[in-house]
Amino acid sequence: MQDDNSKLAQDISDLKSDIEDRREALLKQHVEEKDMEWFKREYPDCTAEDADDQIQYLQEMICLEEQKVERVQQETNDIDRKLRMVNNGTQ
């Protein structure tokens, strides 16, 4: 009888542990689904479902933005240089 009680207590403990593990897995899955929903909402052009592909997409977006910043900076420098030339010619 004591062995039966001991086994039941162990079974109950195992079930509680399994329930907790499952709860944590469901919470993690929920967070991942919410992250995916956010990503799709923020970046609708990216149709990738795989996180690695999404990371690659974001890296490409960053690269494009950096190139755009460089072009704008170069245009600004060119305009500044031309303005200095005009100002020097009129003084």
Compact summary:
This protein has 91 residues and is mainly α. The protein has helices at 2-42, 51-90.
What does this structure look like?
The protein has two domains: 1-42; 48-91. The protein has helices at 2-42, 51-90. The longest helix has 41 residues, at 2-42. The chain has two helices and no strands. By secondary structure, the protein is an all-alpha fold.
Supply the key terms.
91 residues, rod-shaped, mainly alpha
Number of helices: 2
The secondary structure category is mainly alpha
Order of helices and strands: HH
Low-confidence spans: none
Q: What is the topological layout?
A:
Elements lengths: L1 H41 L8 H40 L1
